Amino acid sequence: MTSDDTSVMPPGDVLVDVEAATRTHGTVQVLAPTSLRVRAGEAVAVVGPNGSGKSTLLRLVAGVDEPTSGTVRTLGLPAGEARQRRREDLALLLGGLPTYQDLTVAEHLRLVSVAWAGRHPGPSVDEALAAAELTRVRDQFPGELSSGESQMFALATTLYRPARLVVLDEPEQRLDARWRAVARRLVRRALDQGRALVVATHDAELRAELAARGQVVELAAPGER
Questions:
Q1: Environment class of residue 27 by beta-carbon count within 10 Å: exposed (0-12), middle (13-18) or buried (19+)?
Q2: What is each CA distance from 153 to 42, 43, 204, in whole angstroms?
Q3: Domain count within the chain
């Protein structure tokens, strides 16, 4: 597969392949040896207590960090290389969404659509906002949103990318029960589109949704390794 290949990967292609990956900071092992494999249309729910390495594992898959040992391949390449050469196929929500404070909610999604013109299959900006139940705030600026609205805006914008692989770190945070149901619906839609999802979550219902479409990777607390 070449770096300029933008064709759709057929179902069954492995988009994430993690083999015995670890991550150590100094003398502290923040991620014990972990393996997983994800194909197009599949999901992985990464679960475990705080400090078990959930965010660390996602950062390795995203190519933001390098494993101390083991291997992490994303989109057919070493993860760090994939982050540079295959960024059109990788959508990330790790610790918040960078925003332009003078662009509205709708303008952010429109920017995504324009940036990936020719690859973006839809839906329209208005349809995406309606699906995320954000129509009411379409003309507001990011700094004017409530905590829950801001989180849903971040999730909707991330999923609006035409990416084959989506990595989400606790997308349910700051969402109440109604918003969490909307988030689960958006995740289901992404899987129905044939994307692969790697999601760290504490939400039992989201975990169940993801497990039904793939697998659960449960990480142990530091004291249990």
A1: exposed
A2: 24, 22, 22
A3: 1
